[in-house]
Amino acid sequence: MAQRSSKLNSKQRGQSGEDLAALFLHSKGYELVVRNWRAGNALRGEVDCIAWHTYGGRRVLCFIEVKTRASNAGGAPQEAVTPSKQRQLSRLANAYVSTHNIEAPCRFDVVEVWLADDNAVPRVALHPNAFDYCGF
């Protein structure tokens, strides 16, 4: 896991948050497939984590966005997953399942991570099925 210091820049905070999210997801039974996946074509952006999760006896492929903040001063981290971001993640998910010939149910999860600069214990919250696929 990335080291936390008393002051993290936004890139360091994001990387530390993704590391914590990956550990948290693993503890919840998610099977991580890949982190920071990019389509490698004209599509912009990346999916923070792609993982399999068995829920209700069904194996589901999850596309997971991780949002890390020091506090809720600018709103809850999940609020940063705007409709525009949801459309981008939907396009990326479509590219991933097409590229890998996957025929399985999919969903979009959001993990919120709070990393305070005062070295307080980090908090992590999982929001399964946080939004629906956005056609484009």
Question: What's the overall geometry?
Answer: globular
Distance between the termini: 36 Å
Helix segment tally: 2
Evaluate the radius of gyration.
15 Å
Question: What fraction, in percent, of the residue positions are helical?
Answer: 25-40%
What strand order characterises the main sheet? 1-2-3-4-5
Task: Assign the CATH architecture.
Answer: 3-Layer(aba) Sandwich
Name the CATH class: Alpha Beta
CATH topology: Trna Endonuclease, Chain: A, domain 1
Order of helices and strands: HEEEHEE
Strand % is 25-35%
Which parts are unreliable, with pLDDT below 50 for 5 consecutive residues or more?
A: 1-6
Count of individual domains = 1
Largest sheet: 5 strands, mixed
pLDDT averaged over residues:
88
**Count of β-strands:** 5
